[in-house]
């Protein structure tokens, strides 16, 4: 047996959803740079689920379906109110709420393709409502009902704040959603596929995926980046902070990647957005600190920034609470998880690798009375 730690380089499935080849990311063959500049998140959702860009009519239909399904059961709101709310991380609340949502879906265990697609629509439609409702309830505010006339990105920001967002905020948020939508066989997507490959249901797969995304080596890194920037505080503090961390063999969050070697193609879009937004809100130091960290990492390790690095300052400038950064990642990645879950069901085989045993051999059972 050959053990590949962390499954590095192991090709575990075929997939027609997204690819990373020579540091280029594509969704269904469309370069992420092209999509980031031109596509809306709803178009990307359609692309990932149908493997083609929608016509105007198909896009309208998807938007309508998402709007019609955005309301969440009142039981979820009531459940949030029972939590020890000041201690609960929103990713834990989201993980629990998605699992709970499955209890109120009469089709949760119906496994045919049409029912699974309907559940995909419902999950994608409801996740913004769940995240924003939790955010408001923990602040003692009432949740804001979704507005069917707003697009996906605008509606999220509207439900979060209770007021209609400006065009710059919607554009930035929509682009961030496009950039986070899918990423081949990342840890959370793999988790979702492993889960549903047992022929378990979509809600179980998404709940498992949220659990995997939560960790700071994966989606949780965006919140950790903001924590680091806050701790550093000024551009002058960057050099000693980073050098000390590296000397202690600690990781700088938002850097490095299992697959990319030259760099994450999504980072440059978020970097541009960070430069623009930090200036716009009169807080250019977040961008300046980030650039300085990037320069130091480049000249010492060298490791390039990943998607989580500049997204932190972007979300901060949009006025989003730092512990909502990873749930927002989940709002976008829901589209990719669902595409992969549906693809897994279409051509399923149980995912069950092996482990090389390293424990003791040939032990003989000793009765408890003789064990001291
Ligand atoms: C959306 C996403 O999930 S993107 C990733 C988000 N995660 C982060 O930003 C967390 C910080 N980054 C990391 O922890 C890693 O780079 C990962 C998890 C992304 C990739 O991990 P792996 O491919 O397993 O690389 P691994 O952790 O083995 O690192 C290889 C070497 O680079 C170093 N390294 C990797 N990332 C970093 C970092 N961010 N800061 C400092 N050193 C790093 C490791 O210490 C290790 O050094 P060594 O060989 O001297 O021991
Ligand atoms: O692919 C990965 O390992 C992590 C990542 O960048 C993502 O999920 O977007």
Q: How would you sum up this structure, described in words?
A:
One of its GO terms (biological process) is tricarboxylic acid cycle. Pfam families: Citrate_synt (PF00285). This is Citrate synthase. One of its GO terms (molecular function) is citrate synthase activity. Keywords: Acyltransferase, Transferase, Tricarboxylic acid cycle. It is globular and about 70 Å long. The protein is built from 16 helices and 3 strands. The chain folds into 2 domains: 222 residues, Orthogonal Bundle (Citrate Synthase, domain 1), CATH 1.10.580; 97 residues, Cytochrome P450-Terp, domain 2 (Cytochrome p450-Terp, domain 2), CATH 1.10.230. The chain has a 3-stranded antiparallel sheet. It is mostly helical and 372 residues long. Helix 8 runs antiparallel to helix 15, helix 13 runs antiparallel to helix 14 and helix 13 runs parallel beside helix 15. Bound molecules: acetyl coenzyme *A and oxaloacetate ion (OAA). The site of oxaloacetate ion has 6 residues, from loops.
What do we call the CATH homologous superfamily of the largest domain? Citrate Synthase, domain 1
Number of strands: 3
Give the fraction of residues assigned to helices.
55-70%
Spell out the helices and strands N to C.
EEEHHHHHHHHHHHHHHHH
Catalogue the ligands: acetyl coenzyme *A, oxaloacetate ion
Protein name: Citrate synthase
Catalytic activity: oxaloacetate + acetyl-CoA + H2O = citrate + CoA + H(+)
Keywords: Acyltransferase, Transferase, Tricarboxylic acid cycle
GO molecular function, one term: citrate synthase activity
């Amino acid at each position: 047996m050959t053990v590949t730690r962390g499954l590095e380089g192991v090709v575990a499935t075929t997939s027609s959803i997204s690819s990373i080849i020579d540091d280029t990311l594509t969704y269904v063959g469309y370069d992420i740079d092209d999509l980031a500049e031109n596509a809306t998140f709803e178009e990307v959702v359609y692309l990932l689920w149908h493997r083609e860009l929608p016509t105007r009519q198909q896009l309208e239909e998807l938007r309508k379906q998402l709007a019609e399904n955005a309301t969440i059961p009142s039981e979820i709101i009531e459940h949030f109110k029972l939590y020890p709310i000041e201690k609960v991380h929103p990713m834990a609340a989201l993980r629990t709420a998605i699992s709970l949502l499955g209890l109120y879906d009469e089709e949760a265990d119906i496994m045919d393709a049409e029912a699974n697609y309907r559940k995909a629509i419902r999950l994608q439609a409801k996740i913004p409502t769940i995240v924003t409702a939790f955010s408001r309830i923990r602040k003692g505010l009432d949740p804001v009902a979704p507005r069917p006339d707003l697009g996906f990105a605008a509606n999220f920001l509207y439900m979060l704040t209770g007021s209609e967002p400006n065009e710059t905020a919607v554009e930035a948020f929509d682009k961030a959603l496009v950039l986070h939508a899918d990423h081949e066989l990342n840890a959370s997507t793999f988790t979702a596929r492993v889960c549903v490959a047992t022929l378990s249901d979509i809600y179980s797969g998404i709940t498992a995926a949220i659990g995997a995304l939560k960790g700071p080596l994966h989606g949780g890194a965006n919140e950790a980046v903001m924590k680091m920037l806050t701790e550093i505080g000024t551009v002058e503090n960057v050099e000693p902070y980073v050098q000390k961390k590296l000397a202690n063999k600690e990781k700088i969050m938002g850097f490095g990647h299992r697959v990319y070697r030259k760099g994450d193609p999504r980072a440059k879009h978020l970097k541009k957005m960070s430069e623009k937004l930090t200036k716009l809100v009169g807080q250019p130091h977040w961008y300046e600190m980030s650039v300085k960290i990037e320069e130091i990492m480049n000249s010492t390790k060298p490791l390039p920034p990943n998607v989580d690095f500049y997204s932190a300052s972007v979300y901060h400038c949009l006025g989003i609470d730092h512990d909502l950064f990873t749930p927002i990642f989940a709002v976008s990645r829901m589209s990719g998880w669902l595409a992969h879950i549906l693809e897994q069901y279409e051509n399923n085989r149980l995912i069950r690798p092996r482990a090389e045993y390293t424990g003791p051999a040939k032990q003989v059972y000793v009765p408890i009375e003789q064990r001291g």
